[in-house]
Amino acid sequence: MIIEKSLLKEALAFAVMITVECTNVGQSTIYKAAVSAGLSPNVFIVYSYATSALVLLPLCVCFRSKGLPPLTPILIAKFFLIGALGFGAQYFGYKGIEYSSPTLGSAMSNITPAATFFLAVLLRMETLKIKSWISQVKIVGTLVSIIGAIVVVIFKGPVLIDPYRTEYTKMAIKRGIAESDWIIGGGMLALSYLIGTVWYICQAVFVREYPGELVVVFFFNLFACISSLLFCLPSERNPAAWRVPTDVRLWSILYAGVIGTGFGVVVHTWALNVKGPVYVSLFKPLSIAVAAVSGVLLLGDGLYLGCVIGSVVISIGFYMVVWGKAVEKTEDEFEVETPPDEQTPLLSNRKQSSPPV
């Protein structure tokens, strides 16, 4: 009975993580379809953040944990910071997908662990031990991820799967945005994930100060909505652009607001609590394959050799950094659990029993 429950738990966690990766790629795919149909990226970002905040507000009221610290002006300012950083990361991410493809976006997202490790070393949040083989693995993994990102951006290569033109792709061709500007898109995606890495580090620090994840996510979406409104409203002055018709453009906003932030955050949190961050990270490269298939079938994007080679290289570097972090965490836990005087009992006994010379 215990074995069956364990297998059921493993199967559920496996199925949930695949679902989460599919929904994340689906958000990028439906966004590009909506933009190809004429939706303004500025309108999409503002409305999606507003939808997320409205969905999370009643949840915060109903399920707010007791014993949380009061909301001080300094704490509100910190929430505004992660909201502004999150908006900046998402803005450049969506612009990068608009210029390239969801496949490139998914491939570039796998440089996040390497960028996090690099910034953590610069900010002295993590100690770099050059002589340690674990640090060497993480350094090599970081360099491999950077090389893969350069390959996937600069080298497009020959097409492996010819694009299949869909209704939305044909509309995009008429508007002159269907032909991808690979380098500009890749540069914007790299900037997006660099800002996202800073956002991730700041959020991890702030959650320790205010351990109410649901409240933190609500304020993140609220202040991201305010930040996006201050930036996007002057950029999109056409009143007609803010009226969204009931087609793929409206569904993309609802999907991003409800599924992307609601379902995705809840399930991700559950998986982190049940299986840990390493298990969750292992499914990240799966998004490349899902994005490639959905991009070819739904958006008419071509699959290019450079994207495949770069994605493989990035995934190798990704797993090297994640594996190094996992081994390092295991060794740290062993050192904490094992007292210093119990780690080498044979040597201690030998010293005590050996006669003086």
Notable features of this structure?
357 residues, mainly alpha, 14 helices, 77% helix, 1% strand, globular, disordered C terminus
Description:
- This protein is mostly helical and 357 residues long.
- The protein has helices at residues 2-36, 41-63, 73-99, 102-109, 112-122, 133-154, 167-175, 182-209, 213-235, 248-275, 277-281, 286-299, 305-337, 345-353, and strands at 159-161, 303-304.
- 77% of the residues lie in helices and 1% in strands.
- It is globular.
- Mean pLDDT is 75; it is low at 168-179 and 342-357.
The structural class is mainly alpha
Strand content: under 5%
Biggest sheet layout: 2 strands, antiparallel
The helix count comes to: 14
The total beta strand count reads 2
* Spatial strand order of the main sheet: 1-2
Low-pLDDT parts are 168-179, 342-357
Q: What is the CA–CA distance across the termini? A: 61 Å
Instruction: Spell out the helices and strands N to C.
Output: HHHHHHEHHHHHHEHH
What Rg do the Cα atoms give? Answer: 23 Å
CA-based shape: globular
What is the percent of helical residues? over 70%
What is the residue-mean pLDDT, rounded to a whole number?
A: 75
What is the strand and helix layout of this fold?
Layout: H1 2-36, H2 41-63, H3 73-99, H4 102-109, H5 112-122, H6 133-154, E1 159-161, H7 167-175, H8 182-209, H9 213-235, H10 248-275, H11 277-281, H12 286-299, E2 303-304, H13 305-337, H14 345-353
Antiparallel strand pairs: 1-2
